[in-house]
Write a structure and sequence with these properties.
Elements: H1 2-15, H2 22-28, H3 30-46, H4 50-64, E1 67-68, E2 73-74, E3 79-81, E4 87-88, E5 93-94, E6 99-101, E7 105-107, E8 119-120, E9 125-126, E10 131-133, E11 137-138, E12 143-144, E13 149-150, E14 158-161, E15 166-170, H5 200-228, H6 246-256
Parallel strand pairs: 1-4, 2-5, 3-6, 4-7, 5-8, 6-9, 7-10, 8-11, 9-12, 10-13, 12-14
Antiparallel strand pairs: 14-15
Helix pairs in contact: 3-4
């Protein structure tokens, strides 16, 4: 138990640059308090003292703003950053070295008993406000971007954003598989996102613009052929498309800020 607590405290320094001292983490980090109280309530829950376990979980929620059902299974070196508004359901399973930010929900989509909450494999990062719903599996090293809604399983190493969640990238999991090591700071994506993350909506719009431009070219060719054969085509002015792609415009606006 004490080894687990020491690991839970040590992992804070790996994932939060604001952490200054062990004393500060122990006394001022609600995410650490929530995990500590959950480990107690979970042990009591497994001992079939369900009311007492639920009561400790209730006190945990009152003190930290983090609601973790005592039946949830949580692995080693689990870190909840900021934490307010986090909800973890009864049948949720969380692997080692996972990170959750504030406002995350690991919820269910059914009132039926049985497995109804997500399973997070090792090294998963879920950004602020994201909702992961149902008995789905988030693969090893996957990233869920802030405010995403994920209702389907995510493969290992994938990055998911949007509502509903769309996979925008898939890379090799970037953390060590050895239980004695923590995720690499070099490859850690805070909030499950990074500055160069592609925008799937902008990509779809750019493809539509490219398609429209090809159609315009074909129509001009058809009009020229009809005019050559004496068939007069009515000229209608068409607003020209913006000279830059949507994604390029986003980059330009970001650079101006």
């Amino acid at each position: 138990m004490f080894d687990r607590i020491k690991e839970d405290i040590a992992c804070v320094f790996e994932r939060d640059p604001a952490a200054q001292s062990v004393f500060g983490v122990i006394t001022t980090y609600p995410g650490v308090h929530a995990v500590f109280l959950h480990r107690i309530s979970h042990a009591i829950w497994m001992g079939k003292f369900h009311w007492l376990a639920r009561f400790i979980a209730y006190i945990n929620r009152w003190l930290t703003g983090i609601e973790i059902h005592p039946g949830a299974q949580i692995g080693r070196r689990f870190f909840i950053d900021h934490g307010m508004g986090v909800v973890i359901g009864e049948t949720a399973v969380i692997g080692d070295d996972c990170t959750l930010y504030h406002g995350v929900t690991l919820g269910g989509t059914s009132w039926a008993k049985g497995k109804r909450h997500p399973t997070l494999k090792d090294g998963v990062v879920i950004g602020a406000g994201a909702k992961v719903l149902g008995p789905i599996e988030i693969g090893t090293g996957a990233r869920v971007g802030s405010n995403s809604v994920v209702i389907k399983s995510v493969p290992a190493g994938a990055t998911v954003v949007g509502i509903p969640g769309h996979i925008i990238g898939n890379t090799k999991p970037s953390f060590s598989s050895e239980h004695t090591k923590l995720p690499s700071q070099k490859n850690f994506d805070a909030y499950g996102t990074h500055a160069n993350m592609p925008d799937p909506i902008a990509h779809a719009i750019n493809n539509m613009i490219d398609h429209i431009q090809v159609l315009d070219t074909q129509i001009e060719t058809m009009k020229a052929a009809l005019n050559e054969h004496g068939i007069k085509c009515t000229e209608t002015s068409i607003t020209a498309l913006v000279g830059c792609e949507i994604a390029d415009c986003y980059k330009e606006s970001d650079s101006e800020l």
